[in-house]
Amino acid sequence: MESVPVRCPVCSRDHAYSTPAYPCPCGMPTAPPLLAGAPAVRVGHRSWNDVWVTVRCSSCAREDQWPQPELCCPCGTVLRIPVRPVATAGSPAAPVSPAHIPLPRTAAHPRPAFSPMTIRTSHDAVSTAGLYLTWLGYRDVGRPGAGPASGIDLRGDGVIARVDSSTRPATLRAIETLWLNALGTSATGVFFSLAGYAPDARARADGVGLPLFVLDLTGTPQPVNSPADELVSTGA
């Protein structure tokens, strides 16, 4: 694991920082490449855009957004660790079947056609999403005890889902909240929306491999990005 020396500019303490690795969709542990010799930057203000960096997987060459490496010094200062830009990270390994390319629409075990239910209320939307996840092959899908306030409307064996039944497109923050929840629980995150997705939300979901579906009032979820296409093709 890559490690760099870090000195706090406030109290001058020295630290050895090792960046955490996260699993790429291809299965390879992946971590942001640290920029050796560059001083850490004190974090005085946070924004959603500042806490993400682009990382290329050394195995499949997929580029995703990962949390920006940070270190909390005992003096209370939060330090941002500089990362090498992807463009200068070196030549990637030969790509192998990137995970974001949809597979043929044939599952290993053919499923019967999905039976939709008409959506009239937000409760119907959540119920439809739950039925669809079960149809995809996830087991024990139901509502979590914490409720929608946690950013999760459904939870099953290896999956968590958000169902946005509002009349506005799903936001970037909603996408990132679900993705971080999925990352923290080692589960697949799946997003369902009645009103579609904001452009930046769609772009983030594509970057991190989060499946997006749109629910129409007939109750038939439609995949709107490549990770969703792949999920429909392969199932859980």
Number of alpha- plus pi-helical segments: 4
Query: Strand fraction band?
Result: 15-25%
Proportion of helical residues: 10-25%
Class by alpha and beta content: alpha+beta
Q: Whole-number average pLDDT?
A: 80
Number of strands: 14
Low-confidence stretches: 88-108
What is the N-to-C succession of helices and strands? EEEEEEEEEHEEHEHEEH
Organism: Streptomyces globisporus
Protein name: Restriction endonuclease type IV Mrr domain-containing protein
What do these coordinates show?
The chain is built from 4 helices and 14 strands. The protein has helices at 122-136, 172-185, 199-208, 226-234; strands at 3-7, 14-18, 22-23, 29-30, 41-42, 52-56, 63-67, 70-72, 78-80, 154-156, 159-164, 188-193, 212-215, 221-223.
What's the short story on this structure?
This is Restriction endonuclease type IV Mrr domain-containing protein. By secondary structure, the chain is of the alpha+beta class.
